[in-house]
Design brief:
- The protein is α/β, with parallel strands linked by helices and about 260 residues long.
- It is about 40% helix and about 15% strand.
- It is built from eleven helices and eight strands.
- The protein has helices at about 5-15, 25-30, 35-45, 50-55, 60-75, 95-100, 100-115, 125-135, 195-200, 205-210, 220-230; strands at about 80, 90-95, 145-155, 165-170, 175-180, 190-195, 215-220, 255.
- The strands form two sheets. A six-stranded mixed sheet has the order 7-6-3-4-5-8. It has a two-stranded antiparallel ribbon with strand order 1-2.
- The model is unreliable at about 1-5 and about 250-260 (pLDDT under 50).
């Protein structure tokens, strides 16, 4: 099979490959690189722009993101196209790339079923958490009016200590993520240990237990809290939560002061 970049891809496989014709080996040569499954996760969900990929994967260096995108392009998994407006490019999955979605879904299901104990404080990040909540929010459950949620996290370590406060501005059209007060009236205030809240959102723990242990507190009107819980997916007891990795129609909008 001949395609642009084929020789470069063969050179890469020669250095990183398994020296095997096995289809599992050939898939792993592309898919099993560090960060690649997470990058494909975002591409599967309809993220196309470099800045959005950086926001979704804040712990991945810019240089490595560039390298992984190039490798996926050479492998025929993605194609780079010019933006319809303005300058720069977007990254879109090819047919081969879309075929990775069942693998992403299977990895998510396995992690939800068998990897719950592996979530440690060092793994949590408020930016990643809010990105995930935004991407998986059921905005169809929102009322016609805007709903604003303020987060105050504790238990942050290292350089994350300055990322204590966040805001969600939920609208039916989209959800904005802000690191500075957007100036709207707040409907729900979430005060929580970051690890505990992450586990509740993942479904690994229930909200009743987290509240009882004073790890998570929700304040606001009963209606606003109920709406927030429904849209974000917070249940009273633990459950095996399923995540949808199909493309989203909306794009990420993060306030200009947010980390990217």
């Amino acid at each position: 099979m001949n395609y642009p970049g084929g020789e470069a891809l063969r050179d890469t496989c020669a250095m990183k490959g398994y020296g095997s014709f096995c289809p599992v080996a050939k898939t792993a040569e592309i898919f099993a690189e560090r960060w690649t499954p997470l990058l494909l996760r975002e591409l599967c969900m309809g993220v196309h722009r470099f800045g959005e990929l950086q926001a979704a994967l804040p712990r991945m260096s810019r240089a490595l993101l560039v390298a992984r995108l190039r490798e996926l392009e050479l492998a025929g998994v993605i194609v780079r196209v010019r933006k319809a407006r303005g300058t720069g490019s977007e990254y879109h999955l090819t047919e081969a790339g879309v075929a990775f979605r069942p693998l992403i879904e299977a990895m998510s299901h396995w992690g939800q079923r068998w990897g719950t104990a592996r979530v440690q404080p060092k793994d949590v990040d408020p930016g990643q958490l809010l990105w995930g909540m935004r991407r998986h929010a059921d905005i169809k459950q929102l009322p016609a009016r805007r709903v604003v949620v303020q987060f105050e996290f504790r238990g942050l370590t290292g350089n994350l200590r300055n990322l204590r406060y966040w805001w969600f501005v939920l609208n039916r059209a989209d959800i904005d993520v802000c690191q500075k007060n957007p100036g709207y009236d707040v409907d729900v205030i979430v005060e929580a240990d970051i690890t505990a809240f992450t586990r509740v959102w993942l479904g690994h723990d229930g909200l009743v237990r987290a509240r009882r242990d004073r790890l998570v507190s929700l304040s606001g009107s009963a209606e606003a809290i109920r709406t927030f819980r429904t849209v974000i997916g917070l249940r009273d007891t633990s459950w095996v939560k399923a995540f949808d990795f199909s493309p989203r129609q909306t794009q990420l909008r993060v306030a200009s002061d947010a980390r990217s």
